[in-house]
């Protein structure tokens, strides 16, 4: 970069090969929409130099053309939204390609926006494409059939509606991008084959990150979604929502403290969503309002073919989420099949319910849960028991519990269940035809009082609790018993 004088402005940082926006008349003292648009229309690569003294450019809505290049200085170049209620950046047409938007801080001034209109930082709607799309190929400098935009080193704050709305063909690179304090969704993705790295979305009024039905085969690395649901709208206060989009991969992903659920997968047919997730899901009690109907950590809603490997953490004394996992099957949505879920759970949710079932048909799932703490007895209505409810025919279920927890397991016939439990407690609720292998011992090596009892001959678990008989007496250290509930 070089320091020079442009139109009488000294100290302007100009990148080699770029024309500065001030050459088109942008001065930062009034509405600069026309001068910015003139710079874009020139077809030149444009530098957006930071204004002295923390000054801000002001624009209403800018139309991006094919190959538009806008480059600012990260955290120094600030553009604020004029009170027009319009998106700040839109595409000239659905076949725009090769955008390069870099190093801008975008301020929405949502309090000054009119109630009408759609006010977003980026409203980018590309066309969906085929392998030999002639319009994309004609526009692309490399003859590509997809847009291949690059947008990064962006800060988005305070827009009335969504921070970013992305749709259409992909092959785009996004990040790092920070989106905070937007009144709608942080980011809506209805686009495929994109890369997202270093995306940080926080304090959204509605859901933080939402995938539409074509939001598929995207790769996410090193991202965080947090504190979603500030507008306190029931059903729209979740950190991450998949609405049928499939094949997304999430690595080193962090979901924290929404007002609703951390993850929602809306599958309407077997095999939809099919995500691969590795990360941390936590709840530390940062919200002041919680959606009483949806506040769970992982809400599968009957979706299938998902692979989820996560640490699920809830701080003790924060009984805000009812389940760590819920709705593996949902009769109103779909049959949840072919899921592989490995959860390590620290801390507790309300009643320490680890898995819940709400109707539907599901099988061929593999569920493994490691549970490493006991819910405090001081919580209202808590008796110190951990409940584990799951109904999945033909599935393998593994569970580890620690402490004096009792475990309720209303399983389905034909399951193979592996249970390890320390320091006592009662495991109950198995259905007829279930195969159970139990490892049970005390931490100090003394005989344990843990036992397995069946509810098959009782009206309910309460009746079983009154008449349950230990199977094979006490289990000693390292001993294994396998029984079949008949």
How are the secondary structure elements laid out?
Blueprint: E1 2-6, E2 9-14, E3 19-20, H1 33-41, E4 45-48, E5 57-59, E6 62-64, E7 69-72, E8 78-81, E9 89-91, E10 100-102, E11 105-107, E12 122-125, H2 134-139, E13 150-152, E14 154-157, E15 164-168, E16 173-174, E17 177-180, E18 187-191, E19 195-197, E20 199-202, E21 209-211, E22 219-221, E23 224-226, E24 240-242, E25 249-256, E26 263-265, E27 276-283, E28 298-299, E29 307-314, E30 323-326, E31 340-347, E32 353-355, E33 366-371, E34 386-387, E35 396-401, E36 407-408, E37 416-422, E38 426-430, E39 435-441, E40 451-454, H3 461-467, E41 480-484
Outline the structure in words.
The protein is mainly beta and 486 residues long. Helix content is 5%, strand content 36%. The chain has a 24-stranded mixed beta sheet that branches. The longest helix is centred in the first third of the chain and has 9 residues, at 33-41. It starts with a strand and ends with a strand. Mean pLDDT is 75; it is low at 1-11, 349-361, 372-396, 400-406 and 439-486.
Brief overview:
By secondary structure, this protein is mainly beta.
Note poorly predicted spans.
Answer: 1-11, 349-361, 372-396, 400-406, 439-486
Count of DSSP H/I helices? 3
What Rg, in angstroms, do the CA atoms define?
27 Å
The averaged pLDDT comes out at: 75
Q: Pairing-aware structural class of the strands and helices?
A: mainly beta
State the end-to-end distance.
78 Å
Count of DSSP E strands?
41
The major pleated sheet works out as: 24 strands, mixed
Percent of sequence in beta strands: 35-45%
């Amino acid at each position: 970069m070089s320091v020079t004088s442009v139109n009488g402005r000294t100290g302007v940082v100009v990148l080699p090969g770029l024309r500065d926006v001030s050459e088109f008349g942008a001065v930062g003292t009034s509405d600069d929409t026309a001068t910015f648009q003139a710079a874009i229309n020139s077809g030149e690569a444009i530098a957006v130099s930071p204004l002295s003294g923390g000054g801000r450019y002001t624009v209403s809505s800018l139309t991006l053309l094919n190959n538009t290049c806008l480059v600012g200085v990260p955290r120094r170049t600030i553009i604020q939204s004029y009170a027009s209620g319009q998106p700040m950046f839109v595409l000239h047409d659905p076949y725009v390609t090769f955008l390069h938007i870099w190093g801008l801080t975008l301020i929405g001034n949502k309090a000054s926006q009119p109630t009408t209109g759609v006010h977003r930082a980026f409203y980018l709607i590309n066309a969906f494409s085929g392998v030999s799309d002639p319009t994309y190929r004609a526009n692309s400098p490399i003859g590509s059939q997809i847009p291949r935009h690059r947008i990064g080193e962006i800060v988005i704050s305070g827009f009335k509606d969504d921070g970013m709305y992305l749709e259409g063909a992909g092959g785009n690179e996004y990040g790092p991008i920070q989106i905070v304090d937007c009144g709608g969704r942080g980011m809506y993705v209805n686009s495929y084959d994109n890369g997202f790295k270093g995306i940080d979305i926080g304090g959204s009024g509605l859901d933080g990150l939402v995938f539409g039905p074509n939001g598929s085969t995207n790769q996410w690395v090193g991202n965080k979604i947090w504190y979603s649901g500030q507008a306190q709208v029931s059903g729209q206060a979740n950190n991450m929502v998949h609405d049928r989009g499939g094949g997304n991969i999430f690595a080193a992903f962090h979901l924290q403290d929404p007002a609703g659920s951390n993850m929602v997968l809306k599958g309407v047919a077997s095999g939809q969503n099919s995500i691969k997730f590795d990360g941390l899901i936590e709840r530390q009690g940062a919200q002041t309002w919680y959606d009483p109907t949806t506040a769970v950590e992982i809400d599968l809603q009957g979706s299938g073919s998902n692979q989820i490997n996560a640490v699920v953490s809830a701080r003790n004394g924060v009984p805000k989420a009812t389940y760590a996992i819920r709705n593996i099957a949902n009769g109103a949505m779909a049959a949840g099949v072919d899921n592989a879920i490995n959860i390590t759970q620290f801390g507790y949710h309300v009643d320490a319910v680890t898995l819940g079932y709400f109707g539907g048909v599901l099988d061929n799932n593999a569920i493994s849960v490691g549970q490493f703490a006991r819910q405090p007895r001081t919580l209202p209505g808590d008796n110190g028991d951990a409940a584990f409810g799951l109904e999945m025919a033909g599935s393998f279920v593994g569970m580890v519990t620690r402490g004096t927890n009792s475990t309720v397991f209303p399983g389905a016939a034909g399951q193979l269940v592996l249970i390890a439990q320390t320091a006592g407690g009662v495991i109950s609720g198995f259905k007829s035809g279930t195969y159970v292998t139990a490892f049970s011992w005390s931490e100090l090596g003394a005989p344990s009082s843990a036992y397995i009892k069946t509810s098959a001959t009782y009206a309910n678990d309460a009746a079983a609790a009154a008449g349950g008989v230990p199977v094979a007496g006490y289990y000693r250290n390292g001993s294994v018993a396998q029984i079949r509930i008949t």
